[in-house]
Specification:
binds zinc ion, seven-stranded parallel sheet, five-stranded mixed sheet, binds calcium ion, globular, alpha/beta, 24 helices, 17 strands, 574 residues, binds 2'-deoxyguanosine-5'-triphosphate
Length: 574
């Protein structure tokens, strides 16, 4: 079993122990799981070298369990735990607002042991009959089930993209493939995708199709044809592939990238010019002569348009902008000079400050901001003012070690309390290089109260960035009620930036909100919220989302040089 598999075992152990209301242990297992999944070496190698207990969060007992899994492929302890609860019960924990205590009560009192039964019970108003539950709780559960369904079987961009990339790598290795690309919503960078679409350009496609269905992770072949196939992967992702001849690759890529609405508008432009547009090329309607098809640039040019980046092909103003020559120059990865939201093992992150900084250096960054949690967030081991001061010293020391290579900002992700006040006194905040303020509690406020709360933090004079501004977790938690226009106005007046949190489950601001921020002249700060050094790679999802929001480099704070960033932050200081 690989590192991810072993981490999954411990996550499940933690969930079951949670259900059984065991104290402390669940979090210890979770911490171990997080460390294991972020290891850079194969865990079996560490086991062979007797170094398992060097993994953060792994003590003697977990080390023994890891050895058992490596030896036998399973963990008896987990098997025993599983036998103690009905099979579907863990699924209840995936419903927002259903924690271990609620799940256990639902099971014991009402015999609810899976999601279907929960839904039925809520619809029959049986949930509200439980002691301490009431109508409100029942409504919340119904709402939670709806949130869960809102992802509607769609897959997160962050889950789909690595799978698609590996698949294409495999196809390229398996033969003499000429051209290959992702297409569909995945190429457009949507936050969730219905399936993975792959396009290949090859003049002998049959061997590509053969290789496609022989991929080791294929669970089921839905369809296999000479130029078109579909499979389902073991992890239940559907992958569609199309093959076209190389001369049509550009036209096909344009067609299969979509969106459908963008393509409809494109075809209409073609019609007006006497051109026919399809997946094989652009043709003169009368002579059937092909005038474009090999590249996408050619296709757009044939319609008298500049190239339109895939991320904005949503028929949402991009075609008019292209016609008028006012398309934005979109943000590119090379523009981003640093990550401004990273956690370390001082709170709930997996890695040391030094590891984070060294990763930032290897990513070519000019700066990185260390922004751990504040004191109220006890489950994350949030920093007391005293520990925060010590951390600032530690940050300065690490920066010294890397002298000249990178600027390290000492910051914090400060909780916005229910009343809008910040989780540290001004005397503590004023010594920080950068302050992100975030809501982590009391998500269910009325719109007005929540807006007042957030605006108060923005206007405090100590905040540089509003963290994950809507608090949504895709498929798990709806955004809290917030007057975004009002928040943006306050942010503009106070010179506060909005975060684009790059975590695949968050992407918060969303693409649409990024565009709104730009229109409101509010700058966006792209941060990963990484809790391990590997997660610093999430920056790419933030960049894609920024592009979908029409942002260019001048709309984004962390495209500034270290010097300009520091002077901007200092200017705001007080
Ligand atoms: P998804 O998979 O739901 O996230 O969204 P898409 O956009 O990837 O949709 P999908 O997978 O059904 O089709 C991929 C692309 O192929 C789509 O973006 C545009 C193109 N396409 C598919 N069906 C049609 C169609 O009936 N008409 C046109 N014009 N284009 C289509
Ligand atoms: Ca698709
Ligand atoms: Ca598809
Ligand atoms: Zn946060």
């Amino acid at each position: 079993m690989d590192n991810q598999g072993i981490a999954a075992v411990f996550y499940e152990v933690a969930d079951i122990l949670d259900l059984q209301r065991v104290a402390f242990k669940p979090n210890a297992y979770r911490r171990a799981a997080r460390s294991i999944e972020s290891l850079e070496v194969d865990i079996s190698q560490l086991a062979a070298e007797g170094k398992l207990e060097e993994i953060p969060g792994v003590g003697k007992s977990v080390a023994k369990k890891i050895e058992e899994i490596l030896r036998t492929g399973e963990l008896q302890f987990l098997k025993k735990l599983r036998a103690q609860i009905p099979e579907g019960l863990l699924g209840l924990l995936s419903v927002p607002d259903v924690g271990p205590k609620t799940a256990m009560a639902l099971y014991k009192e009402l015999g609810i042991a899976n999601l279907d039964q929960l839904k039925q019970a809520a619809l029959d108003h049986r949930v509200r009959t439980l002691k301490g539950f009431g109508e409100k709780t029942e409504e919340r559960i119904v709402q939670g089930l709806r949130t869960l369904e809102s992802k509607g079987g769609r897959i997160l961009l962050g889950d789909a993209l690595p799978v698609a990339t590996a698949y294409i790598e495999y196809l390229k290795l398996s033969g003499s493939l000429d051209l290959a690309s992702v297409a569909g919503s995945l190429r457009r960078g949507k936050e969730t995708v219905g399936d993975i679409d792959i396009l290949v350009g090859d003049d002998e496609p049959s061997s590509v199709m053969e290789a496609f269905v022989s991929y080791p992770d294929v669970k089921e072949i839905l369809m296999k044809g000479p130029t078109k196939s579909s499979i389902v992967l073991k992890n239940n992702l559907q992958v569609d592939i199309r093959a076209v001849e190389t001369a049509s690759f550009g036209a096909a890529l344009q067609y299969f990238t979509g969106s459908k609405e963008h393509n409809v508008a494109m075809r209409k432009i073609g019609l007006d010019m006497g051109l026919k547009l399809n997946e094989y090329g652009v043709f003169e309607r009368d002579s059937e002569k092909r005038v474009a098809g090999e590249t996408e640039e050619e296709v757009y040019k044939a319609l008298g348009l500049p190239f339109i980046p895939p991320e904005i092909r949503e028929n949402d103003g991009e075609i008019e902008a292209a016609r008028k020559g006012t398309l934005p120059r979109l943000l590119e990865p090379r523009h981003v000079r640093g990550d401004v939201h990273v956690h370390t093992n001082w709170t709930d992150g997996a890695n040391s400050i030094k590891d984070i900084v060294s990763t930032a250096v290897s990513m070519g960054y000019e700066y990185v901001a260390i922004t751990d949690h504040s004191q109220s967030l006890k489950i994350t081991n949030g920093l007391t003012p005293d520990r925060l001061r010590k951390q600032v010293d530690a940050v300065r020391k690490v920066e010294e070690e890397f002298r000249g290579k990178i600027k390290v900002l000492a910051g914090n992700e400060v909780d916005i309390r229910a009343d809008g006040s910040l989780d540290y006194a001004s005397s503590v905040l004023k010594d920080l290089d950068i302050v992100i303020a975030s809501v982590h509690s009391r998500f269910k406020m009325e719109r007005e109260e929540m807006t007042r709360r957030v605006v108060k933090a923005i206007e405090s004079g100590f905040v540089d960035i509003l963290g994950h501004p809507t608090g949504r977790i895709i498929g798990q938690r709806l955004p809290y009620e917030l007057d975004m226009a009002g928040v943006l106005e306050a942010a503009k007046d106070a010179g506060v930036s909005m975060e684009l949190n790059s975590f695949p489950e968050r992407l918060d601001l969303s693409d649409a909100h990024c565009r709104l921020a730009k229109d409101s002249k509010v700058k966006v700060a792209i941060g990963t919220d990484a809790h391990s050094k590997e997660q610093m790679g999430f920056i790419k999802f933030g960049i894609i989302t920024a592009r979908r929001g029409w942002l260019g480099d001048s709309d984004v704070v962390n495209t500034l040089s270290a010097k300009d960033l520091m002077s901007m932050l200092r200017r705001r200081k007080r």
